[in-house]
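[Q] Does anyone have a clean C-alpha cell version of this?
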Amino acid sequence: FAAVIRHMTKDAKNDSALPLLIHRAYQENDWKGITQFYANGGGPEWWGDLVMAHIIRCSEKWAAFDPEAVSRLSEDSYLKGWDVSLAQNQAFSCQYTPKGETPEGTSPQPGSQVPVLIMNGDADPIDPPDNMAGAKALWPNSLSLVAPYQGHSISDMNAISCWFSILDEFIQTGSAEGPHTDCLKNIQPTGFITTR
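[A] Here you go.
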C-alpha cells in the first residue's frame, strides 16, 4: 500500500485524490481507486531492469542505497519497510552486477561553461529542487527553473506546454539567459477531490 502511495506522489496530478483514496481504503475498505491506479501501470516502483541502471547504483556513491543507512534515515517514514526492501534488493543485485569505473571522490566534479537548463517540479519527492543547490557554481551558464505544483512526472498539460516552450527557446537560442518563463506563473494546483 505504502509503495503505491509513494508511486502516486511522483505525479502531482494524483495528489488531489490521495486523501480521499486513503480515507476510502481505511474507513470503507474500498480499494477501487488504488487498485485502478495499480492496474493502469502504476504498480509499485522498481528501479528497472536495465543493466546500466544497476551499474550506476552499484558503482557510484551518490546512487548508493545502503540498507542500514536507508533504515536509519527513514525511521519515521511510512515508507520505511518499502525503502529498506528496495535497498536490500539493490544490495543483493549488486553482488551480480559488473562494477563501472568511477573516479568519484578522487577529484572535484568538473564544471562546464556549456549552457544548462535545469527543470524541477516543486512537489518532486524524488529529485526536489534543493538537489540542484550549487548548480550555478558548477555550471555558471545554467538556469534552474521550478514548476509550481508539479512532481517528478509531469502530466498537467499547461505545465508540459510551458516546459516545452521554455525548452524550445533554450534549444533555439543555445543559451540559458533570458528565456520567457512567464508561463510558469500560470500553472495552477489541482483541487482536492472530496466527494464521491
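[Q] Thanks! Anything notable?
[A] The chain has a mean pLDDT of 84.
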